[in-house]
Amino acid sequence: MENEELFAQVAAFAKEAYKFDGEITPDTTFDELGKQSMKMIALTSMIENELDAEVTVSEIMNMHTFGELVARVAEEAE
Amino acid sequence: MDLMESVRERAKANPQRVAFFEGDNPTMIKAVAECQATGVAVCTVVGDAAAIRANAEAQGADLTGVTLVDLADAEANEAFAQRYEALPSNPWKSKGVRRRVVRPMERALMMQALGDVDVTFGGIDCPTGDVILGGQTIIGLADGIDVISSVGIFDIPGYEGSAGSLLGFGDSAVCQNPTPEQEASIAISACDTWKALTGTDARCALLSFSTCGSGSGDMVQKVQAARDLAQAARPDLAIDGEFQLDSAINPKVAAHKVKRESAVAGQANIIIWPDLNCGNVGVKLVQQFGHANAYGPMLQGFKKIVCDCSRSAPVSEVVGNVTMSCVRAQALAAKEA
Prior knowledge:
heterodimer; A: mainly alpha; Non-ribosomal Peptide Synthetase Peptidyl Carrier Protein, Chain A; 5 helices; B: Rossmann fold; 6-stranded mixed beta sheet; globular
């Protein structure tokens, strides 16, 4: 899967999980999205269910930007 | 009868089913054996059954009456996965469910979600953060609650408060800098936990450096907002603030400083810290200077009882925590009935 396509997919999941209306870029931080763990849980479930990539909430809690998450998903989905 | 004795008697009167997921830990397996033998809980241990039995034998722990859920049993795992998949709250597709049924903590929580057990207990090897995230994912938050938090009950020698020498503290362990919504959740959960454990109604004070507007600024406003949210969400509970500690627990100070009606001022039996800095310092103060004995901290805010213990907990502390969890599960079941 191309990275741009993957980015768009993960960004769409994040918008749904976080109820976020703004634009998500690789530099968007998780502080901007909101660090609530229930939303992170929803995001990780979508990623796992749709992309078969298991990324844990604990991992996301240690990430700064959305780009880091997409890179991690790409690695897991390989 | 002291609190722990009363809790133990209540636990034995209606034993709850507890799933443990760290059966290869020496302390935990001894605690499981003691809980089962003394009748405070009906115990299930989830993991590699051969490893659990070997650990029990090495520790001299008698597992008579304890159920082992063997994660090496592929047929049983598949049957369980199919049951769990049918649960409306299941967040995963088939592959995700099957990934998790063979992981001890997640399997135990999934059993709890299905109603096979009443309590999930662990944390002696597993970090608290993992227990909280696992519980949030599989069990979920209680209705109307925004955050997982903790409450501890302290027995403070020489303290003569409205509940004798007992005083509840929340949250001294989990939520670092709660929003007003989260602080309201902590207070509500703490009231329910107090009632379950002591059998008495909670009077819950939200603490600040200010009493009824004697101070001002963002820190005070946050506590006032939390009070308003908590009172609106649960008018059946006695939650009030913002109070300084002495205004919360000392009737004479409250009479002087609180110039309005309050069911809590001066007679609080639970205090809620505005953040974890205060909570941690407060706990250390009563332990170091007041030589207080702590029950907990206990996690709260899940739909069902999920308990985490300290990684350095001895067998007696684990058994105590299991016993308190069982009494909380009894109260939850009674509330839902």
